Amino acid sequence: MTDRAQVRTLDVAGLPSFAFSHHSLMWWGTLGLMAIEGTVFALAVMTYFYLRSHSSTWPMSARAPELLWGTLNTAIMLASLLPNHLAKRAAERYDLRGVRIWLSASILFGVAFLVVRCYEFAGLNVRWDSNAYGSVVWVLLGLHTTHLVTDVFDSVVLAVLFFTGPLESKRYVDVSENAFYWYFVVFSWLPIYLVLYWGARTV
């Protein structure tokens, strides 16, 4: 290969500075974050079942978590997929009005989830420092809550930018990637919900 051909092959000047979906470095970074955080969730779930396998009673000295709040939050999370998806679609069309509407709706769903999450912690029927069972369920719920809080905060920051401006085109990519990450927050919750609320009810 000649020096001239090699320079042409390595030249990335023509690549866009931002793009949607897998054409974006941010998309790959978000996917990598999901892989890391998904592994953390998986390790926490494995810890739950490891502790359960070494306990003669489960939950330890506690009643199983109340189903109401966790089930309500699961319904809220699943419903939140729609406004987030519509915000993503609007962003990919550079539809300012659509982004404003659906991003605001997504934030309302996120805030509703956080409010109900407070009742979820109270409905665990165990303190984090009561025993190993209490520690692992609080860790699982706390890990997911951390992801939820950071994503809602990110959505609020984006909403402020979209309502106040001025806007760069790459902010639409940010909205798309934010919705992509929200999918992870929702779908990672489903196995955690089953473990926390039904893992304590099965023999």
Describe this protein with a few key phrases.
Four Helix Bundle (Hemerythrin (Met), subunit A); mainly alpha; elongated; 0% strand; single chain; 203 residues
**Head-to-tail CA distance between termini:** 66 Å
The SSE string, one letter per element, is: HHHHHH
CATH architecture: Up-down Bundle
Helix content: over 70%
What overall form do the CA principal axes indicate? elongated
Describe the structure.
The protein is an all-alpha fold and 203 residues long. It has one domain (23-52, 67-198): Four Helix Bundle (Hemerythrin (Met), subunit A) (Up-down Bundle). Helix content is 75%, strand content 0%. The chain has six helices and no strands. α2 packs antiparallel against α5 (132-164) and α3 runs antiparallel to α6. The protein is elongated. The protein starts with a helix and ends in a 5-residue tail after the last helix.
